[in-house]
Structure formats: structure tokens, C-alpha cells
């Protein structure tokens, strides 16, 4: 069998192509999916590495994405000084890695733990080699320093670590194609810009190809797939020639038609060993992890219209990318080194000229020591190709001098380190000198084992430990109360609350709930914002549907928003108005984007846009009001409802038949006038059945019809053909219509199940007269990240459709009757009302108010008043956390200030969103009630006593908790590395292709959250730590659930989150440790 | 008159003797610094109030004292040696003697100055062909300075011209200047720059009335070559001191180029020369602080300093900002004293090209240098410490001095 490497001359076989495809797809695993930003999905940027332990995944991600996985040590030190990281927690974290060992310097003894603590708090004192000697010279006590230097010079560790010029080549030989691509090697070693050239070319092609309606002139030939499209267009594009690639057009023309073959050809040319291919492809895919994440997501969407129209996958992407690399690397290697650009030739070069290359690399990277530079003609380093033979000769002569200088520098570095450690540990330098080399050798060994790059995990553990210990203290009072309630010493109040409100588990709802409860008489619950009803929602007059559920689920039910029956006329007018508005908008858009018209348009109506410019900039609130007032004058008020009921098959069938009959009547009247209208209903029905092939042609009704319309057989056949082909009266259309109709809504049984599940998970005991189902969404202007502020549980959309759907179900008498049969009795005077909390403005909009019984008028008014008051308080609380808000003293209209933030188009931070979240609590409200959790906690209502089998907890742990973990990881990584995992600053963002944002005109898609979301100036606003999931439930039950789900095992085993049980038996907190151990929080 | 000459020489001898005493008596730097700063202040006051010499010389002497003051005040008492203080004061004394001394006395001081500089070069510079050439140049300069005191008028003019192009360096007479800037230790390099240019300006001021239009025409061509050569050298130069030396030579070429365009050299030329000396000396001084901390020599090896060292970033932005406007100084001051006659000839083309090289080149190399020092990605393996208040103040004084000289004087 031919191997993949034997493809130079032969056409690859199908099995080789399949193998290659699998390699590329495997290589794509570390790259996380990226959803189009119109439905921003918070996700773990290292989701593809969750199979690894958290710390290992960070190391792997560093290799691929060049990202930092931990908060900088200096930030952690600030936390330590502020007390956010306690000494106890730091000791605890260090104990896990410390040894039972001590070193004696005279009378002073230093334990390993003390040493670790000293260097983690004060740093190692490590400095760059090239500056160490100067710093040392300016240090006081030169005599002590001299003594120390003498000892350090004699240490084995120093002599073992001696650098050699050959080290550069040896290191790079090992790392080539495993840690970096050939293109990256060229950039690092030869000072070229191959990577950016490849990236710029690839971004140019891919951003055009992946455009989803944003471009005014869309890319041609996209139906030919990405690779085909590129081949077609690259022939007409001279950028390859401009990059210096010789014979560009012929090379493109001669490329294989199949992308797999092109990759195989390039890999063969570059002679990358096959065992490195997967890693090599990963390195390439990670170069533009945003774009590849998006196309990875898109290529997996089987029913995504853009993907179906313009297919693309990782293999096609790789084919284009690797072609550029092959050409550019070859070009650069030949120009700079005089060798072909292949793995083998580079390896051979590094091996043959290791000394000369070392000299060249040292000059390129940190600069040669001045003593060496003075002895050399530095212009040789700029010659092309590099005179490597001469350099090799020079290097041989200079090698020992170079080594001596570097060794001296290393000694200076180590001396500074020892001085720094001595200061940190309060040791006298004289004692260190007197103690001789042995203890110093051990000390430097310890240091080598725990360099600054390894401090991150320890700080993280200490931060988490400090947090959780402090956090659980907040619940002491409530736990005491719960203990009494559980022991029946104290009865909870069982009177009916004035209202009950079910909010999303989102951290922003926590503050709102607290404020609403504090007003009095209102009980609140937390539930995933899609209310457990996964739907595909179609808004009235909108062409597209949104999936209103977490991305982990796939909705099977369509819910449509339709006008209420009595508003049929108004709906027609509404649609007409909307069509006119749409036409006007299209016209304006075309005029703006046309090549010629803008010249005239600017003169004619350019001034008109000035109103918007000045209004929105200078007086945003007034402008918004004015626009709303104008819009209200033209908008037809329309009341809508949702199609929650599934239509029975018979009824659906009759609906389709009725539509077909109407079509036949219209056609008959159009063709025969009054004669057509005299055709009987039976005859029309017969015609319909005839079109459906359901009755024979020679029936009595048809004969009568033939007589009536003076038809012969041919006329009849012609009419039937017309019905089938032109007017879709056929079996196929019927099936299609039936499918559409029957997808819509839920059966009564399904409705009962959804309502029951929601109410039981939440642990409802009593039912108020009004129960608010409150979804959430956000409003902001000029914000591509707007959907990141919407409901994550609703797939990054507003949540009102789900709340409306569940409220409609729960208010239905037949649903309630069936629920009562199941033992869940909802009082007849209880009414569910849907609403939506705008998390930016803190306004709550209520829906379907027509359905509220007249008897509930006063309850409704009271609820509306309470919601407004809670919103005002919540806004005041939130605004105090905004760094750009002036200090609000006395009475001020917080709602108004919050509103301004939502409509100000220059506002980069309309709200903090989910930043600063730390924990997810699933438990009774009594556990958290009255505690100010500062909007940092996801709150899911859950009563373990009502869930003996753990079914409801299983739902919580496998859906909302996972979404919480994704949100948490996205915030974590965006904070610790804004560039690799975050999205940088919003100020430079540029929307591209309606799929995401990038910097300027060419960059990777920004995958994470912007700086304005996670940072407060230079300081992190979000405290990056892994999510603590606190579950009020027996530990055994949690064990059982974890053991049932691989995803939960993976997350807990690899420490991507922490699960804490509040065990109802003793009301103590325990931390889960894989596989099934629990450690009391107090003892960690 | 004789009293005035005696007073001037006495003033010059004060710093000189302090410097010599520092060497002989091994006075600690701390004491020497206090003594020196006091002496500089007293000499300055006397110069301004009691000494009656021509204004350009007085101005140059004050500029030299300010430079000395700034260099000394910026040095940390605990980190600097007395050798540094002595060397600064000796240099200062010899320069003042050269500037203020009349006739033979002045030439005598100049010989001492050149001898001291040659001695420093012989000690510090590595053995090379360039070193030999530099020392021969020094020898020539010493001989010519003596002959200028005793020779005929034409000898005086010739030797004066040689000294002027040595101290206000034009290619190929720039080697001693570059050698001094390159090899002087730490902040001394900045002082050497100012004193060197000050002597050059004084020399040019002496011979300027005697320079014939024809000779100025050829000097203009030399200035043009110097402008292009030095601008290119500055662009390609990575070593901080050599970069400053090249940038200075490029700017000095403007003075020579403008000589036969604008009349009244003392008015525009000295003001511009002192502004150049202060700005480039300021950059050199700021660099010396970084060099003292981190042993930094090559531009580009320590980028992004403005973030961890905001004071350094501030002074660098101010210095480069002013440096970019330097060619405006002689233009406007020169134009203000220019008689309204038509002078549109080849000289204008020449000066246009000099401006092109110096201004455009300066815009390029100064910005590049700024981007490679103050901006860019900060290295994380360096324990940064910002400029101390005294260091910051010293550079700010030089900036203010340059502003005064260039705009107000």
C-alpha cells in the first residue's frame, strides 16, 4: 500500500485522502468552535482540550495558541496584598508541592515551604542575562557580592548549565514542526514575515468567502467551495506574484483539483515527517483560531443555509494555507540561506552549521555580547544568502570567548537571584558565603524546580481556596435557619406571597431578585432562562428563526408569533407598512452603496443624517425619545400570541386542503368568471383529489364539471396539470405543509411535562395569584457584542419568547387539569404572566397582558410598581460598580442613567454583563435569601427533598451547569490573556461578514470577550477562577449523577470546575474530588 | 580690560582646580558633588553679573555651566565615583578657560582641553585605525591651536577654520567628536557634547567675519555631504552614543550650510548650536541613565521603556519632539535678520538639500529611535526603575535651556 509520503509522483489514492482528512480533523480538535456573533455563545476557548487536566491543557494551549493560562504573578501578588488571597490559602496551596526538606545557612534554617512562599510572594529575582552584570555593579556591598560570585562560579549547577553556541541549532532542530511551523521558524530565525503574509492572504480569501450578507459586493464563485473558489480567483489575483512567488499563475493552474491532493503535494515538498502531521496541522489551524473555529462550527452544521450554499471545511482551508507556506518558506530559505524550504534541508543546515547558526541566532535574538560584536564585522549577518561557512569559521574561533561571557552573565544572574532570595528570607549574605556551596546548590535546585512560570497554578488554587472559604461564611445565618426548618423547629411561612417571579439563573438576575424580594411580598425563583422549553422561534413578520435554548440542545418544536385573531386587518396593515419601510431601507442602502449615487445623495440628503449624528452624540436620550415618538406615529400597534398548541393531524390536513380548495376556486374564477364561481364545493374537492391522484378521472362529479365548463378530457388534464405545477396543489406540497404545521407547537401532554418539570425543579410549595416568568435580554447601541449580553440559555437571544410560551401553557385549563391528576394542583386564580428583564436598563416589560383576568388588575399594578422600584434599586447598585459613572449621592434617577448607557452609541461598556461571576448555586432560596451576592452568582432554585431520584438535579448538572462552565471559562481565559483568548479592545473592532469582529481590515476573528467586559482599566475586573458549583444535595446523589455522565467526569477529573455539596445531613460544605471523594471545605 | 581677563580666567580655574583636587585628594563623590555644584553656581552668577565679555561668549559659557550642572546634579551620590566628578569639573574648567580666555591664554586652555580629550581617548578607545587617525587629528589640532595664537593672520584663519570644523564637526573632521561621544563614560558623554559644540561655535564666531564668500560656497558643499552622510549613519546606527553623535553632526551641518545664506551668525548660529547641543545632549543624558541601570548600549534591545519608566518616556517624547523642530530654529532666526535682497541661487538649492537630509532624515531616525526605546513591547525580564527626580530635573533643565536658546534667545 502506498504511504502518504510517496505522493510526489503518484496520484494519491482515496484511502490516502481519507487518512489525510482524518488527520486534519483530528488536528482541529484543540480549536474551539466559534459561533457567529449574532447569537454569541459563551464558550470555553480550550473546549477542545477539556479531555486533558486543566494545567496540562493550558500547557498544550500555550504551544498552539501562544496563550497565557494564568493571571500574571504581579496581579496575584496584588490580590495577596489586598487579602483577596489569604496567607492560609497560599500556605495550603504551597504545601501540596512542598517537600520535607531544609537548608541551613549558619544558624538560619530554611524549609522548602518557607523558600517557596518567599519566592512566590517576592518573585525569584530572575533578570535578563544581558543586564545582570550592570545591576550587580550598582548594588551595594561589592565585597559580599564578590564572595558570592566566587562560590556561585564553582557550583556544579552553573557548570552544567553552561550555554553553547550549538544549543540554538539543537533546540530548534527538536522544536521544528512540533512547536512551530516552518513559516514561523523562518520568521523567528531569518527575520522574515512569512506568517503574517500567509495570514493576510488567508484572511483576505476566507473573510470574503465566509461573508454572510455583510459585503456589498459578494465574492464570486463561492458555490465552487472554498478551495475551488480560491483556485479560480487566485488566477486573476496578482498578490502571489507581488509576494515574490515565482510563476504564480502556472503554479495555481497546476494545483490538484482536490484539496487533499494539494495538501499531500505540499507536505511531500516540505518533507514534514508523517508522524508530525497532526501536530503540524494543529499549529496551522491555531494560527487563526477564530476563523478556523468558525469554519469548524460551520462545516458541522448540516442544515446551515450558508454552509449548504457555499461549502467549506478544514481540509479546504488547510490546502490553501499550506500552499502559501510551501511557496513562501521555499522563497525565503533560498534567499536568506541558499537552501530549499523543506524540513529536511533546514534540519541538515542546522546540523551542519550549528556553530555559525548559533552565532547568527544569538545576534538576531538578543544581540551578541559587546566584546564579541567588537571583534566581528556585523554586516555579515545582513548578507543574503548568509555566508554560513564564514560564520561557522568565526564561531569556532569565538566559541570559547562567547561561552565565557555567557557563563559570566549566568553567574551574575544567579548572584542576583541569591541576593534577592536572601533578602526575601531575611538571610545574611555573609552566612550564605560562609556556608559554602552545598546549601546554595540545593537552594538553586529548588529554584529551578519552581520558576515563575510555575507559580500560576499555585496562585490560582490559593485564590480559589481563599474565595470559597470566605464565600461559604456568608451563608452561616441562613444555614442555621435552614437547620431549624429541616428539624421542624421553625416553620417557614406558608402564606401566599403577593407574587412569585421566576428569573433566569443569570448572575444579573441575582441582584434584581434580591431587590424585588426586599420590597416585600414577592417570592423569586431561579431557572435556566429558556424555562426548560427548547423552541425554534419565528417572530411575526420575520423571515428567520432563532433557536431559543442552550446550544447543547437542538429544538424540535417551532413556535410562531402570530397576530391575535381580532387583529387580522391591523396585521395586514402592519405588514404593508413594514414592506414599505423595508423597500425604503433597501433603496437608501442601495443609494449609499452604489458607485455613483453617493455623490448626489450626499448633496441632496446628506444633511439629514446630521440629525442622527448630532442627536445621538450630544443628546442620546432626547434623540431616542424623539425617534420613538416618530416611529409610534407610523407603527401600527399589534397584539400577538404564540402558537404553542400542536395542531392535530386531521385538522392540519383540513387546513392544507382548505388552502388548496381556495386556490382552485380562485383559478376557476380567474379563468371562467361567473361560470367558475358556480362550480360546487363537491366538484372543487373532487378536482383537488384528482390533483392529488386520489380519485379516478372518470367519476360522475367530473362528468358534471366537464359539462358545466364545456371541458373535454384534454382541458381537464390541462387544468389538473396547471394546478399541480403552477399552483402547488399536489401531494408533495401537502406533505411539506403538513410537516411545517405539525412541527409547530406542543401536544397537551408535552405542555404538561414542560410545566410540571419547571415547577417541580423549582420546588413550588404555594402558588401566588400572579406568577411572573421573566426572561432577559439587553439593549445597547453600536455594540457587536450585544448578544453576549443576552440570555446564554436562550442561545444568545432575548428570552421573552420562552417565557411567553411557558406562560401560555401553564395558563391553559386542560394542562392544569392534567397536572392536577399528577398531584400538582395550581389554584384556578393563579395566572402566569410572561416578562423580560432588560439587564442594561433594568426595565421589565410584561407581555400578553390581554390574557390577565380582570380580577388580577390590582395584583398586576402592584407587581408593575414593585418591578419598577426593584429596577431603580438594582440600577443604583450596578451603576456604583461602573468606573465611568460619577459618584451618585442622594436621590438620583438610576433608571434614567442606566437607560442612557443603553442608547449611547459611544458607550463601550453598557453593562458589566456576566463579569465577576464566581459561583453557581443550586439550592433552596432560603439558603441565599437576603444575602448580597453582588451579582456574582448564578442562582438555580432546587429543592433536593422534592427530587428523591435526582432526576431534576441531573438536568441542572448536565445543562445549566455546563452552560455556566462555558461562560466561566470564557471569562477566565479572556481575563488572563486578552490577546490570545480575549477580544482586545472594542475601540478597534471591525465587524466582518456578519459573523464576528476583527481588528482593522485583516486579523483573526476575535474569539473571546473584549477588554471592556473583563478589565477595569489596567486591573482585572473579573476575578479569574474556576466556577464553584454549590449544590444543596446529598453527596451520594451528586456522585451517582457524575458517574452517569462522561462530560461531568471529564470536567471534574480534569478540574475544569469545582463541585461543592452542601450536604443536607449536617449542612456542611464539601468539595468534590474525583472520583468520589469529598473534602470538607473548612479543611482545604 | 585686564582685570576682566583675570576675572574670567580665575572663574575658569575654580572648577579646574576642584577637579584636580578631587583627583589628588581623593575626595568622595558626595562631597565633590556638593562642592562642584556650589562652584558652578558661583561661577555662573559671576559670569552673568560681573564679567563683561561679548554676549555670544557669555551665552556659550553659561550653556556649558548649565550642562555641567545638569550632569552633576543627576548623579546619585551612592553610585558614582569621585573620578566622574573630577573629570566633569576638569572638562568644565578647561572649556571655560578656552571660551573666556583672551589671546594666548585662551589658546593655552584649548591646548590643554585637546590634550585632556586626547588622553581620554587614548585610555578608553580600543586600538584601531580609527583611534590612530583620531589621535593624529588631535595632535594637529593642538599644533594649530598654538600656531593660531602666534602665527600670521592667514595661519590664524586656517587653523581657526580647522578647529571650527573639528569642534563643529563636518565630515571628515568628525572623528574626534564621535570618539569623545562614544567613549566618554556615562553622563560625561553628554557634557563632552555640549562643551565640544560650544567651543566649535566660539571658534566659528571668531573666524566668521574673515571667511570669504567663495570659501563658504565650498564649505556649503561639505555641509551637504555631511548632512547626507550623517543622516544615513544615524539611520543605520544601533549603538546609542554613535547614533547621537551622527544625529548631532547632521544638525551641525545646517549651521555650516546656512553660513552664506543668513548674515549675523552670532544671532542665529549660536542660538541654534546651543539648542542642538542641549537637545542631543539631553537625549544622551537620558540614555546614560538607562545605560547606568541596565548596561544598555544598542537601540532596540530595550524597547517599551515609557510604560515602566514614565518619566523617561516623558523626557524622550519632549526631546524628540523638540529635535524634530530643530531645523526651524535657524531658519526663523536667520530670516529675521536677513536683508531683503534676492539670494535665489545655488546656495538655496544647497540649503534646501541639507534641510531635506537633516529634517526628513531626522524625522525618520528620531521617530525610529523613539519607537525602539520608549514604545514597543516592554521586556518582562528587566527590573525597571524610573528616573529619579534629580535625573528627570536635569533633563528638563536641558530641555528648557534648548527652548530658551532656540526660541527666545
- Main sheet specs of chain B: none
Number of strands of chain B: 0
Q: Tell me, briefly, the overall form of chain A.
A: globular
Q: List the quaternary state of the chains.
A: heterodimer
Poorly predicted ranges of chain B (pLDDT <50, ≥5 residues)? none
Question: What share of the residues of chain A does DSSP label as strand, in percent?
Answer: 5-15%
| Average pLDDT score of chain B | 89
| Individual helix count of chain A | 48
Element-by-element helix/strand order of chain B: HHHHHHHHHHHHHHHH
> How do the strands of the widest beta sheet of chain A line up side by side?
13-12-18-19-20-21
| Helical fraction of chain A | 40-55%
Instruction: Write down the overall mean pLDDT of chain A.
Output: 91
Q: How many DSSP-defined strands of chain A?
A: 21
Largest interface: A-B, 15 and 15 residues
Would you write up a description of this structure?
The complex is a heterodimer of chains A (1084) and B (409). Chain A contains 48 helices and 21 strands. Chain A has 1084 residues and is of the alpha/beta class. The radius of gyration of chain A is 35 Å and the shape is globular. Chain B is mostly helical. Chain B contains 16 helices and no strands. The model of chain B has no long low-confidence stretch (mean pLDDT 89). Chain A binds chain B through residues 125-128, 130-131, 133-135, 138, 140, 366-367, 370, 374, and chain B through 78-79, 126, 292-298, 301, 379, 381-383.
